[in-house]
Amino acid sequence: MPRQFEGGRLVIASHNPGKVREIGELLEGKASDLISAGELSIDEPEETGLTFEANAILKALHSAHASGLPALADDSGLAVHALNGDPGIYSARWGGPEKDFAMAMEKVEEALGDAEDRSAHFACALALAWPDGHTECVLGTVEGHLVWPPRGPHGFGYDPIFVARGQEITFGEMNPSDKHAISHRADAFQKLIARCFRPYHDT
Asked: Which of 60, 85, 130, 134 has the most crowded Cβ, counting Cβ within 10 A?
């Protein structure tokens, strides 16, 4: 039986403001008090896992143990099929120490070269961890293809070069609410909310 989040403060195990904001929007009505690991001065652990799920669990447990509170972590990335799934779990690291995603997108485009296959997918693993070490984890995905040059000011990461299947605009051009309806993170959140969250209502 999956463990339920019982309300109260929930730590978002991320220092990425864009990711924290997006997670907050996706959790609206499901948790009353969200705070980021960055706000709590919790350091970012080294991501030594070999899968999105392993890294999400690692990060969630790190923040849960450091804060004494339940913690939610996301590990997500872009898998380019012609690049054998790269950058994959190393998606942020392709941007270097400063996580410069403009540079990361250029690296992806250079690696693709003249490849005809520009298909790719985003994956998102979400892990919910408690201080006692219990975890729940789900995986969400969205299929699509890559475009160049980058388009759109919205989102973050590789969003400006990714067009989801059935769409004509990039995630970077898409209204955030529209993206939330179809993204890999939305897919993962639907699964996690159904598994672990009850609606929260202010009293």
From this structure: 60
